[in-house]
Amino acid sequence: MQIARPGDWYRLAGEVETAVDRAAATARGTLAQTLGLRGRVDEADALFQTAIDTLERTLGADHGHRLATISNWSVLRLNAGDLRGAESLLREIVAVGERVHGAHHPAFAGYLQNLATVLMRLNRPAEARAAYERAAGIYRTTLDMNNHRRALPLVSLSGLHLAEGRPAAGDGRGGGALTGG
Fold first, then answer.
1. Calculated CA dihedral for residues 92, 96, 98, 99, nearest 10 degrees
2. b vs e for 132-146, b when ≥16 Cβ sit within 10 Å of the residue's Cβ?
3. How does DSSP assign 34-90, residue by residue?
4. Is the pTM of this model over 0.90?
5. What is the pLDDT of residues 35-76, one digit of tens each?
6. E strand or H helix at 150, and its extent?
């Protein structure tokens, strides 16, 4: 039997503390979502902020779990009518996501697509179009032809074209907005 040295106990205690903090942050994020659904937005905001701070401290600013929690917070801000707050959170996710995943990763495309949705609600169609088109391009080059996510930004672009009175607008390659090819 090996006897643990004092340094081992400190290391183990730190690992346990990190695991407990991570679990508490996850629970706070889940509770924040529930409170948000019940209209208790101020309480939800405080819990989301605490969860994100804890995740940054324990996992790092670039960890996917932290990004997912920020994404959930952006949905709360969007549903609460705080489009600028949602945009700010999504811009952070896009910046970190590009650094972490790279500019040609499907997860990054999803972040762009979410940002584009908020930009449309903010009546900034040119910015939204650029984000949708970038997401569509990433999906086109990284996902199988039959993957449903390929269609998501194309459907949004089609809606944008319809809103502009251009129902048959294409992507410059001879096809309509929903060709995807």
1. 150
2. bbbbbebbbebeeee
3. HHHHTT-HHHHHHHHHHHHHHHHHHH-TT-HHHHHHHHHHHHHHHHTT-HHHHHHHH
4. no
5. 999 999 999 999 999 999 999 998 899 998 899 999 999 999
6. none
